[in-house]
Every structure is written in C-alpha cells, then in structure tokens.
Amino acid sequence: MALEDIKEQDHIVKYLKSILRKDRIPPMLLLSGRKGTGRFLAATMFAKALNCVNSTDDCCDKCKSCVAIEHRAHPNMIVIGRDADVVKIEYIRDMINASFVPLNNGYRVNIIDNSDKSTPEAFSCMLKYLEEPPERTVNILIAEMVELLPETIKSRAVELKFRSLSAAFIKETAKKKGLSDEDAEIVSKMANGSMEKIKLFSSKDFLKKRKIFIEYLLNFLLDEVIVSKLLEEWKNFSGSNDSISNAKEFFDIFATLLQDILFVSVLHDTEHITNVDALGFIADKFAFVDRSKLHKMYGVVLEKNQALLTNAIQQYILLDGLFKIKEVIK
Length: 330
Ligand SMILES: [Zn+2]
Description:
A five-stranded parallel β-sheet has the order 2-3-4-1-5, with helices on both faces. It starts with 9 loop residues before the first helix and ends with a helix. The protein folds into two domains: 3-161, P-loop containing nucleotide triphosphate hydrolases (Rossmann fold, 3-Layer(aba) Sandwich), CATH 3.40.50.300; 203-329, Zinc Finger, Delta Prime, domain 3. The model has no long low-confidence stretch (mean pLDDT 92). α5 links the parallel β3 (108-112) and β4. It is an alpha/beta fold. It is built from 15 helices and five strands.
C-alpha cells in the first residue's frame, strides 16, 4: 500500500505528497480525527515514503525499506502507544533513548498513537524532546480528542484533520468482504463513519445475533418481553459475562430503533432507517404508534446516556432506564 491508496482523505494525501515533493518536512505532524478513519495508515505510508529509495512523493512499496516499514521491522520507524489506554512516560523515554542517525539517509519517524491519552508526565517529557527535535526526525502524534493535548505541544504541530468516512465507501468495503447488499447497508450505518469495528460488524455471526436481539427489542416495545428477558438477550448478543455491561452500546442501538419507528410509522420514510432488516417488522407491528410515547422513550434514552458519562454504575442506569421505558409503554 502507498499514500495514493488511502481512500476518502484526499486533502491529506495531497498535502503529504506536496511536502514530500518539496522536501519540506515539518518536525511534527498531528493526525487528528476519529479512530478508524485512516490516521495510523497514513502515518505508516508517510514513513514509507520518507524512506523509500525509489520514489520522491510516495513509496514504491517494493524496496527493502518499504517492505521493512510495512512489517514494522525498520529501525527508522518507532511506534508507541498503539492500542494503549494510557501513554506512560516510560514509552516516551524508550522512544527518545532509541534516538540515532536515521539509516540510509532516510528519516527517523516517531509515531505516537493515542497521544491524547498521555499522562501529564509523558506530555512534559514529550515537550522537552519536541522543543529541540533531532535532525531528520518527524514526530507524528495521533489523537482523537485533540483538546486534551497541551497547547504547548499542539502549537508546534501541523494538524491534519481526518474526515469521517462516507457510508457509501463503508458499504462498498463491506460488500467486498462478501456481505449481501442489505447486510452491507446495515454495517455502513452502524459503522457511523469509522472502520474501527468493521471486522466485527461484518461477521455473519454478529449480524445474525444482532437481528435476533433487535427482534427482542421490538417485542419489548410491544410489551411482549419483560425487562429481565431483554437483559438476558443483551448478554447473549454482546457476549459479555457481566449481564448488563456496555450500557451505552445498548442505548445507542435502542435509539436507532426508536428513530426507525418514527421514520417508518410517522414520517413514512423507509430510506433513512438504520435497521434495514427490521423494516418489515416495524411496518407490520408499529403501523400506529403513539408519537408522544416515542418522544418520551427517546427522552429516557438521552437522559440515561448522559447519566452514563458521570456515573460509574452502568448496570443500575441501564436497569433504571428500561423500567422507565416500560412504564411509558404500559
Ligand atoms: Zn520503496
């Protein structure tokens, strides 16, 4: 893969290729945007291009250097913080201590993934290093919550903002994985602009379990399923040992379903629904819905999602939300 192959981020590819052509490489780049939009991929392809022996504004993907970077086996590229919940000062120290003159007249590329999850100590250690960056070194910070980075670091970086991916692009990708048009459509809507969970979403098993769970939710709304049974099904679907964890995910699915019912039954719009596979069920069983009840239920979902931000007792919030919704249904 090369920079050229990165999809849906043309503005970024264009910029990176232009600085490569001019050989004016800033000492620090900040790749911001949501997870699953190609930030790490772009950082790696850029590292390849900076060290490729055959190409000036991209990488050939064939030379020893390109192959080594592709397999994360090139000493000129250091990656820290990948998949980390916290970026500790030790990681930064290890990165700095590995400092050397880049091989083959190339560039040393330090990629700090999840940089927004750095501890204050890690940030200050990073800052000292970034204040006097070594020659032919590029530091690439990857972050989702840019506002968490200290201004002193942010102001030194050239920020490249990654866009959310289009539903059409995600749908095409899902179809290439062998999904039917309908399943790919559902996946593209669930993915919500990011490839982060695309592998999970695209598995046939996941989609099958999800469909069953959605039917339980709809039956719950018809007052045909009790709270405890619904929670049991949520456990089956989410695969969690803790019967009612992931409350946010639960409420998110619930919210899409309420929106779908509103679209189909009140607005008679079948084009913009998320749960395409539940369309028949909704049209059939929810032809006459009480609009004010829908709004009340939606209100409960919003309120509980908000409560999840400040309260750690997820289980109770989920339970309380479901009993409140049940009251609205009755
Ligand atoms: Zn190459």
